[in-house]
Amino acid sequence: xxxxxxxxxxxxxxxxxxxxxxxxxxxxxxxxxxxxxxxxxxxxxxxxxxxxxxxxxxxxxxxxxxxxxxxxxxxxxxxxxxxxxxxxxxxxxxxxxxxxxxxxxxxxxxxxxxxxxxxxxxxxxxxxxxxxxxxxxxxxxxxxxxxxxxxxxxxxxxxxxxxxxxxxxxxxxxxxxxxxxxxxxxxxxxxxxxxxxxxxxxxxxxxxxxxxxxxxxxxxxxxxxxxxxxxxxxxxxxxxxxxxxxxxxxxxxxxxxxxxxxxxxxxxxxxxxxxxxxxxxxxxxxxxxxxxxxxxxxxxxxxxxxxx
Length: 308
Fold this sequence. Notes:
Elements: H1 2-12, E1 17-18, H2 36-45, H3 48-51, H4 55-81, E2 86-87, H5 89-100, H6 107-119, H7 130-133, H8 135-141, E3 151-152, H9 157-160, H10 163-170, H11 174-193, H12 201-225, H13 245-250, H14 257-262, H15 278-288, E4 292-293, H16 300-303
Parallel strand pairs: 1-3
Antiparallel strand pairs: 2-4
């Protein structure tokens, strides 16, 4: 019982900041109790066969997917992990909240692990290298383990300065929970106000939150598991990163992964005109209206290093 209470507490309140890791074999095992919510999220998606489908529920699911895949790429990745542009503290917190709605933990945890990945890409101690650890581990196994529940606080001292980010990281289930509740009440409202839409609270919850979130998660982690195996190597890097045009579409530009590994401090990841990077284009508009500033471009000398 005490163990179950401890695990339930860990689901609600994260305590994952560590100065380093205790490296032992047990840490690489999947912590099945802790990841019960992850498993249940997938199971709940099957209730789509029970609640049915409507165009409005699918539309909300698609809209929430697009917003949150942009937030992961633009905010969690290009801002919190790599600081490729600047913004003020207010918008920084807004970015963190929107990113947290993706149910991929808090911005500090996410950035710490991603910075670790760049320091050790495809080396034996890279947390999610498919070259070193295989597809399953690089896709989902690594973040389900005891070891990677924690992060190395030394990697993110710049982010730990902000108490609001630390609180959001600690309560990393709060924003997803509020989003899930919001989708339910949206569906319930539409059922009463516009019955012709043929939706309801449970249908909107399943499609708008669960299916959208699970699809988003697997698209995001495919950057780890697929794009260090399949695609085009445009630049000479010491890792196995690849560009993949198909995943670039699904991730709004994150698929130009070899470009990013060669020059990670650029806001832009599609380096040439035919490498469509919608995240970069949206960020350019956000700079134009004053939400962000100091976008980092790709120097011409970087392009001269192309091998493909």
